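Handout, section B. The chain below has 500 residues.
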Amino acid sequence: MIKNCLDYHHETSYDRRRMGGHFLDWANQPAVFKTYQGIELTKLPREVELPKCKLSSLLLDKTPGTLATGIDLSTLSKLLLLTHTLTAKARAQEGDFYFRSAASAGALYPTEIYTTTHGVADLDDGLYHFALHEHGLALLRNGEFGTSLLKAADLEEKTVPVVTLVLTAIFFRSAWKYRDRAYRYHLLDTGHVEENLILALKALGLSYHVSYDFDDDRVNPLLGLDETREVALALVSVPGQENLQEQGEARIDPLPESVLKASLVSAGEVDYPIIREIHEAGMHRAESVEQRACTEKEVVHELGLTPKTWTSLETNQPWPEIMNYPDCVFMRRSRRNFVKRPLGKEHMAGLIQSLCTFDREGLERSLWAGFLAGRVDAMAPGFYLLDRNRGAAGMVAPGSFIETMAHICLDQAWLVQAGVHFLFLADLDLVDRTWGPRGYRYAMMTAGRLGQRLYIAATAMGLGCCGIGAFYDAEARDLLGLNENSRLLYLVAVGAVKNQ
């Protein structure tokens, strides 16, 4: 029985000597779009004017968002377009394949979006599912339910949220390919979508609050989820200007069985109990959890790494961006046709700056960022840790690590050509002691958020970028010199590409 994140991560680790054969059951390939039978969609306008800012200016802008007022269908459409949308279509043997703005392991897209609305012009108050493929909303409940979600998340808001968005994951979409390990990708992929959502809210100048600490037993039934197949992972509220006490909490009746059945995405679904075990382990905080954030010194110590020198990085120079923020969201691809051309100093500075402006206060302490520098101008090859608060890099060990890491990442040769491998690391025992089993959600979704940030920043500067969640875990730990309880959670490769 899985009781904590270290247990789960260990049980789902890849071992070169124990990898068995696995064939995809194409007859039971999961559907990548969720639909509800008998519910008509409210179509959102696609022809909307989007922000024209650069990604760098958006990230560096510390102006707080304002309380939402005058939100209409056009504004809601902008928010959802910039969060998750179809960006291109390609022909495949199994049918049309659609590219999306958020990265996903194996292009399986487990993440779904739900939203409550209150006072949105030309839209009834209610709970809706976002039908991404139609860019429309399916009404699941009539009424004001943002207040219910606030109470389930213990968010100390004083006003009724205009919209509250909930991100979920459908288990089998990723488990079809990745089996027991799929919960890692549920969290990473949801983090990808969440980062797009946060950037969109910042671009629209809206205030927001993020919660991973909601009451699962209240949120999942409200959304009408079959909790054996789909679960809520993150909640983002956008406060309005109407006082909270003026609204009573809406009655939550069970939704029809037909709504629950919409979480079924394949007639031949296979259940992987270990996924439900790790998720359920984190549904309630343990009484022994230490309510504290770890200092940077503690995190470095717990990883078992001690950089001898720290060097301040030049992160205040302009990025060499070639497109505006919305364009780099829509143009994002997992581009890995890397070439052996050094990554420019100014490009590397932009990538690092994109990580150093992360604004999820407190929760990012469960994660440490580092990188393997290969071909980077004015930077010696080696393994570095990144102090995101100070904008400094500490060399852990000099030398060329890129080729060995590519071998550890299931021998994916294209990784050798990348200029840099960004690493997201955590001491999972420390995560358990600090946050309880739910801390696994924090660490992995934070890694996904930062990974998506790199995807968009790389795209903005005309670079290639591709994330990797598949590697031989113990070999990665040993290469990096991590202690027994620490692990590599996610790797994102960036570099120059053909036809840059």
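Note. Residues 286-296 have pLDDT under 50 and may be disordered. Compare this with the example in section A.
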